[in-house]
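Weekly modeling sync, notes
Attendees: S.R. (lead), two postdocs, one rotation student

Agenda item 3: backlog of single-chain predictions. S.R. asked that every request posted to the team notebook include the full sequence so nobody has to chase files. The rotation student volunteered to paste the first one in as an example of the format we agreed on. Action items at the bottom.

Example entry:
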Amino acid sequence: MEGYWQIITRIAELIIALAAATAVLFAWKSTKETRKASLAQILMQITDAYSSPEMLAGMLRLHSFKERFQENFGGVFAQLRENNYKDIKEIDEARRRYSHHFYKIWLLFDRGLVNKKFVKKVATHGQVDFLLETIEPLEKAIDPDYDHSTFDFFREIYPEES
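Predicted structure, as returned to the notebook:
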């Protein structure tokens, strides 16, 4: 009879272990699905922000300003920003909007929430070119000690073609 109870106990232990393993499997699967849903939400927020009318209008302003002042656009921007802000306010707001958009993407990567593959999906080569060729010179013009982190990261993501 003692052997019978040992077998019953072992079977019960096995059933409990299987139930625990099943619970862990379902919890893992649920966590994975929650992460996917969270990433989808982040993706939608990022793409919605970039495709907003404000972002487009700002990029057009920035592009026009850069074309108008050519190589000296950063210096003109810094001078106007310091001496006559009302004339440059919309361009400065556009600079901040674009810069902060890419800072948020970098921050997601830096905190380990997304990988480089995700970043390349939400930040195309052309978008990064605009960041590096238009926004970074403005940042540098208004603060020579600006934080390079975002710019360096995106420069690494899309290195210049040799």
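Discussion: group reviewed the output briefly. The chain is about 85% helix and 0% strand.
Action items: rotation student to repeat for the remaining queue; S.R. to check formatting next week.
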